[in-house]
Amino acid sequence: MLTLIFNGFKSTLEPAVLIFLLMGVTGGIVIGSLPGLTATMGVAILLPFTFGMPANSGLALLLGVYVGAIYGGSIAAILLKTPGTPAAAATVYDGYALVQKGEATKALSLSAIASFVGGLVSTIMLMTISPYLAKFALRFSAPEYFALAIFGLTIIASVSSKNLVKGLLAGFFGLIVATVGMDPITSYPRFTFGSLDLLNGFEVIPVLIGLFAVSEALFQMESLDKAKEKQEEVKISKKYISIKELIQVGPTMIKSAIMGTFIGAIPGAGADIAAFVSYNEAKRSSKTPEKFGTGILEGIAAPEAGNNGVTGGALVPLLTLGVPGDAVAAILLGALVVQGLAPGPLLFQQNPEVVYGLFSALFIGNIFMLIIGLVGIKLFSRVVEVPKNIIVPLIIFLSIVGSYSMNNSIFDVAVTVGFGIIGYFMIKSDIPQSPIVLSIILGPMAETNLRKSVLMYEGSYSFLYTRPITVVFLILAFISIFSAYKKSRADSCEIWRKVC
Question: Which residues 6+ apart lie within 8 Å of 155 measured at CB?
Fold first, then answer.
């Protein structure tokens, strides 16, 4: 095995392969940092360019884009409160709050390091225990996916602890939005009102951009009308995250990276779910959960290590079983097939040089991502110094371009603007926006797999207590809801004591 790993690194360290890998990582960071341009889109666009390339160079280019784009989404999330990708939505809470404290450099450096740790841990696990992870992922069927989605939805209670009722109302609204479109089982149109544009429901990206980017831009526009009012300038500290602080958040990063790898190994889960689950677990296990959302370091370390952990995890079922772990892995499956390779158990026997070349490309790609991320911090952080009268129109412009580029659809632009207005009034009313995004992502997953499970068990709901993994996830969901309720009740009692 050591010989195979050595040969894999030897092939990746060839100048041509390294150049393509570096180009992929750099391009991926740019793509990820632009709202609306996802890792899936970046890899899909570059796939045709790899057809005539050697296997190791083409796959290194695509893996570089994958790694860079997942990290790049955090740059816009931290600096502009605009997630570049859905995977960075959880980073908004504490990343932007830290920027408001003048700690943009610290937030960006932590994001790069946490992303590197997540990618590194997942790569090591991919190299060493991928067959075992694949066997674990194979045990997931519709009941397990349903329970996982329910556990993910309970995060709404966690991120809404400041006002549980408002958070639950926002989550309920998101579930209603998620029902629009074709019924997942019967394909019968629901709440489309005769509109062809609504047959596929609301895309996550336009909703995400509207709720976080456009709403924030509209909110910031209020201060632009006050020409005589002197706006307070946020002093930007040039201090990177310290060794002491890294040691402090180290356990959170490693734990989130492992969770992200396991979630990535589950086909269909994805980096966005891994980020929210990691964030929720970090908050649940923290001694100071009330500080989450105010600019705490663990609030950046957890989601960034979690979503980058998916990069290695998603390749586990792809390489061992021929089943892609997420949308990007599905495109990589196509890239392998184009190169004349058949993903699955025989790939390790017939083409070990390609497999270990992928491992080494992922490993070195994460190193490139860390270096570019840290070197580029001074350039990235200058965004905060741009005057509001320039940055606000720029955010709106990028939001419109990003939403349109998804499907070249004006309807998606209208969705972005509509949810931007909704998000604006939610900000004014102090209602959290993230429960809507969580519900839109996880709602269809929960509904589809619940109905599939009922069909599998011929109308019986016995799968809720007869399947061990399902039971574990449902217990975790109950614990998450109960702890959030207990915390909310304790806060209410504390307020009443102060009033009385």
Answer: 276, 277, 279, 280, 438, 480
Cβ atoms within 10 Å of 381's Cβ, excluding its own = 23
Report which of 77, 430, 119, 156 is spatially closest to residue 261, judged by C-alpha positions.
119
pLDDT 10s digits, 236-251: 567 888 899 999 999 9
Distance CA 95, CA 263 (A): 23
Distances (CA, A) of 90 to 109, 271, 280, 283: 17, 11, 9, 12
Say how many C-beta atoms besides its own lie within 10 A of residue 495's C-beta. Answer: 10
Place of tokens 């390091």: 113
Single-letter amino acid, residue 24: G
Given a cut of 50, is residue 229 above it in pLDDT? no
- In DSSP notation, 327-390 reads HHHHHHHHHHHHTT---SHHHHHH-HHHHHHHHHHHHHHHHHHHHHHHHTHHHHHGGGGS-HHH
Task: Give tens-digit pLDDT for 266-278.
Answer: 766 778 888 888 9
Q: With contact defined as beta carbons under 8 Å apart, do 342 and 322 qualify?
A: yes
> What dihedral angle (degrees, nearest 10) is formed by the CA atoms of 281, 425, 388, 29?
40
The domain ranges of the chain are 2-224+237-499
